[in-house]
Amino acid sequence: MTDKFILNSVVTYAGVDRDEVLTLAGVFKLLQDAAIAHANQFDAGTRAMLTRGESWVLNRIAVEIVRYPRYEEAVRVETWSNGIRGFKGIRDFRGYDGRGEQWLRGSSLWLYVNARTKTIVRVPPEIAAGFPTHTAELFCPDLEKLEFDAPAETAPRIEVTLRYADFDANAHVNNAAYLDFVQTALARAGFPARPRGVRVKYAKGIAAETAAIDVRVERVADGARFGVEKDGTVYAVGETL
Predict the structure, then answer these.
(1) CA-to-CA distance for 105 and 86, rounded, in angstroms?
(2) Engineered SS bond to 4: which of 11, 24, 80, 97, CB 3.0-4.6 Å?
(3) 3-state secondary structure of 6
(4) Residues 215 and 157: beta-carbon distance below 8 Å
């Protein structure tokens, strides 16, 4: 085991859209799979849910997508931790295709929570001390300081129905499913459906009994601003480039 984890994969038919191009949710699922596999090597990923009743939840992420891989393409995702600080974990990603050309880079901030109480807790000292840190340059070193504005109240509002598959073992909507909602809303509102950059701040988990949510999208100078919400509760805000 090393301080950098490499996930080798192939873009499946289930992960592409009508043009046989990887979906936005598919991009985020690859990043999530790499992060979980790396953390599980040190009993700090999904296995911690079983052993200690604790889990990581994604709080913020910024991703640049140089291009979207296509069906049957070989892809490689490299990920590493930039350090665990109290209840926070910083993780970076790089994506490469079969020719070794970079198609993605990103930075993320994760929070450690007690799965039963849904409260933020400190990472156990033995886990924090034993988790390797890689000191490569971060894609977005100021991720935690970025400001995220919600769209204007007059912005178009697109309702998206939730599905059984949107919910994960943490009993709320999986972080990658939010990007499915966003891509759906972008396409329906006439925005580019394959943004070259995405920044998201997750504010609140969507409970399992939720049947549908609203995505508001607003055009801004360099792309779109979006908010995922329902009846006044904001679940996520972000922007695309």
Answers:
(1) 25
(2) 80
(3) strand
(4) yes
Count of C-beta atoms within a 10 Å radius of residue 170: 17
pLDDT in tens, 122-154: 998 988 888 899 988 899 999 999 989 999 999
Provide the β-strand partners of residue 70: 21
**What backbone torsions phi and psi does residue 225 show, to the nearest 5 degrees?**
-110, 140
> Residue with structure tokens 């000292």?
125
215-228 per-residue burial string, b: 16 or more CB within 10 A, e: under 16: bbbbeeeebbbbbb
The residue behind tokens 């939010």 is: 178
Residue 171: name the closest of 122, 123, 127, 117 by CA.
Answer: 117
Query: Hey, what are 151's tokens?
Result: 């769209």
Global pTM reads 0.95
User: What does residue 128 show for φ and ψ, rounded to 5 degrees?
Assistant: -60, -40
